[in-house]
C-alpha cells in the first residue's frame, strides 16, 4: 500500500507540476515537451534510477504497460473525435482516404524496409516491426496540435487534419499489425484466411459498425435529455469518459478492435449530440491530455529495455534515423496534391515531419511480443518511440513558432 501511495504522490505531483508550468514550457522554444519530462521522470524513479517505483506490484510489468497504453490511446482518440466538427469526415474524405489507404501502406513498407536493412531481420519479422510503428500516435499528436501555441501558429485546417489522421489510423493499424503477426504464427494460407475473415471483416469492420451504433444511440439519448434539461452541461465530460471505457471494454469482449470502435463511437456521438460547444467550454481535450497521457510515459520510462537497446548498437541509431527520415515525409510529399489541408510546401514539410511514434507503438509492440514471443518487436518498437519522443518533442515548439513566423495564415 505504501508503494501505491508513493506512486500516486509522485505521478500526481508530476501532472500537477506540468499543469501549473505548462504555459511556460510551451511558450519556450527550448524546453522539452511534457512527454519527454514524464519519460525522464519514469527513468529516474524506475529500476535503473533511484529504484523507488516498479510496475511489478501491479502485475507483470509489460502487461501493465500494454493495458495502460490501450486505455491512454482510447482516451486520446475520443478527445480527437470530440474536437473535430461533425462534418469534418465528409468534407475531408478524399484527404483522409489518401493518407489512410496508400499513405499507411507506404509508411508500413518504408518502416519495414528500414528495419530489414538496419537489423537484418527476416522479411515477415521486419514487416511486423514496421507495422507497430505505422500509426501516427494520437497522444503525441494531441500535444503538438492542442493548446494556445498551436492555435496561434498552425492553421486550423492543418491541426484538424493531423488530429483526424491520428485518431483513425490507430485503429486501422490493427490490419497491418495482424497480417505479419498471423503469418508468423500459422501457415500462410490459414493466416490469410484468418486475416480476411477475422481481422478485416469482424475486428475492423465490426468495430466500425458497433462503434457507430453505440455512439449514435448515446448521442441521441444525450440530446434528448439535454433538450429537456435533465442533465447538466458538466455531464458532457462524464458521459464521454464513460462512453470511452464502456465501448473499449464491451467491443473487446466481443473480440473486435476496441480502439477503432472508441474513435467511431466518439465521432458518432459528436454527430448526434453535437456537444462541441460544451466540450470546448469544459476543455475536455485539455483534461484528457493532462490527466490520462502523462502517466503512460512515466511507465514507459520505467520499462525501457536498456540492455536490448545497447545490443542493437549502431544498428539501432540507423533504424531510428532511417524510420524518422523515410517513414512519413516522402509519403506526404507524394500525396499532398490529394490532401486539401496541405496547400503548400511549408504545410507538407510540417505535416510530413510531425507524424510521431508513441503510445500506439508501445501498445502494438507489446501485443506483438505477447502473440509471437519475438523480443525484437518490443526492443525496436520502444527504441523508435524513444527516438520519436526526442526528435518530435524537442522540435515541436520551435518548429510550430517557425511555421507561424513564415506566414500569416495561422488561424
Distance between the termini: 49 Å
Question: How many structurally independent domains?
Answer: 1
By CATH, the architecture is named Up-down Bundle
Class from secondary-structure proportions = mainly alpha
**Largest sheet data:** none
- Beta strand count: 0
Strand content is: under 5%
Low-confidence stretches: none
C-alpha-based Rg, rounded: 20 Å
Q: What is the CATH topology assignment?
A: Na+/H+ antiporter like fold
The coarse overall form would be globular
- Helix count equals 21
Mean pLDDT: 86
Roughly what percent helix?
A: over 70%
CATH class descriptor: Mainly Alpha
Protein name: Cation:proton antiporter
Subcellular location: Membrane
Transmembrane segments: 6-25, 37-55, 96-118, 124-146, 167-188, 200-218, 230-248, 347-370, 376-394
InterPro entries: Cation/H_exchanger_TM, Na+/H+_antiporter_fungi
Secondary-structure map with pairings?
Blueprint: H1 2-27, H2 34-45, H3 61-83, H4 88-91, H5 93-100, H6 102-119, H7 123-132, H8 138-145, H9 148-153, H10 156-185, H11 188-227, H12 235-253, H13 258-273, H14 276-282, H15 284-303, H16 306-312, H17 314-326, H18 329-335, H19 345-353, H20 359-372, H21 375-405
Main location: membrane
Transmembrane segments: 6-25, 37-55, 96-118, 124-146, 167-188, 200-218, 230-248, 347-370, 376-394
Protein name: Cation:proton antiporter
